[in-house]
Amino acid sequence: MIETRRRAALWSLLPCVAMAAAPAQAAEEVQPPPHTEEATAAAPYRLRIEAPDDLADLLGTFLDLARFRTDPALAEATEAEVRRLIAATPAQARSLLETRGYFNPTIRIDREEGQPPLIRIEVDPGERTRVSRTTLEVQGEIVERAEAGHARDQALLQEIQDGWRLREGRPFSQDQWSAEKTELLGRLRRDGYPAASWAGTAAEVDAPRNTVRLFVVADSGPLFRFGPVRIEGLSKQREEAVSHQLTFGPGDRYTEKQVLDLQERLQRSGLFESASVLVDPNPASAQAAPVTIAVREAPLQDLTLGIGYSDVARERGTIEHLHRRPLGLNWVAKHKLEVGRDQRSLSSEWTSHPKADQYRNLLAFAGERFSSDRSAPTDSYRLRVGRTQDTERIDRLYYGEYTTAIVTTDLGRQRASALTANYEWIWRHVDDVLLPTRGIAASAQLGAGHARSDAGQGPFSRVYGRLSGYLPLGRWYASARIEGGEVFTPNNVEVPDTLRFRAGGDDSVRGYPSRSIGPQEGGETVGGNVLATASLELARPLGAGRLRSWWGAVFVDAGDATHHWSAFDAKLGWGLGLRWRSPVGPLKVDAAYGEATKRWRLHLSVGIAY
Fold it and tell me: Could you give all domains of the chain from N- to C-terminal order, each with its CATH number?
């Protein structure tokens, strides 16, 4: 069986061609790892390798003379053992250099007496071998289909030809040769031909001329099509929890992407702890290859208790209960109670298991009280009915909502309610959803409805957008964000405060408490009709090895929320931060200074907000 799982490409490299993270300098003495310093101090000899940087690193990593030098067992090595290592070095060095395409090197070894003696290896690699000719052929059913006019197979053959990089005149190395062959077969196996194999490969080296001729003949095997699907591992969930997430059917052309996407959807559904999709690679059943979906179900219920701190609620405690089939229905119910110093909330959200079109139905209720030193106490209630759709790059949410908010200031209690139709959209084109370093992401919210308050009633609309970008700059990584929004209302219409905008906090303007930036009424901060914020951050790893997951950052944020653009006055915040790039997203600790408040503030957050 072929098990197709999403994973990083693993090339079939020879162990001797691996490169260290930082190349050694020419004529630089090879230093042992820090943890072997004590053994090195008692080593029977010193070693110096004089060669081009990348080759010095290669030899210093894999030569026995270099590796055994740090072995504590050699502290008492005899002279005969050291001579044996020296005698074996030229042949070992030649073999290592050949993997990089150097077949005519000059290698000299000198020994200078001392305490301990110094062994010097001088390497002149000579001219690097280059490709003089490449013969690349693909045979099998893919050729027959291409000749019959099937555009997809014609394009795949052209992609294979165009993608081969070891062409005439290019430097040859064993790792590149292995990588190119792996990629060629991978192209075939990913798009319809999982049984593709080699009919023959050869690299004929002409050492005196420093040239190599390459011969590659791949056999695509038959075109595979999906056949009957068998689901294993279900006991708590119905078969529809899996079958509704299929995007292919019997007779459809096999592609690895469809299989991997199915696995990802099953795991993202929250119903399963693991999922794998297996396709039978037997060429005899290629026209209807059996598919086995094996899942391990998550428990029907989860109860989570937690205590923590957030910029919104400050110190807080949470109780969360999740049921994956409440009342025997094909729904997921999540109930959450959160009690914090500044925020108390109760929510209940019901979402159906994924439908055949990848949508889920949604029913949710939430109640919240928010009150802080810098913000007016706000009680809000929300009832929402809609549909969601989560895909690889785009998330969509359509819903109708009834909202009520009560704001208490020195001027009294202001109550407003609204009935709205809404659409929310998130698009991501990043290298990593959890830990992005390159790409862009955008989100938008559109809403329209009818609002009622003591001041009057009438129609209104609301728009909001956010754009984030990520870009590596050498050893630095830049990220930027802009966001803006506006509520459009007639003069006598007041919308609920929760539909208005405030700024400040972890994902807004750091250096200010969460939701503390906004217009003032009765000495308290309330929501505004317009919002605009921007942020720029530069970060870099603090070191190598384990420290590579720890980053330092500098940042500057600015923004404001007001009733009218004419009153907009951007508040500035800047500071330093520490990042831990954990498997579930970045853990961020920021010390930010608010220019308007003249105070420093500590911010803690986890994850990326899109």
Answer: 15-124 (no CATH), 129-219 (3.10.20.310), 226-297 (3.10.20.310), 301-606 (2.40.160.50)
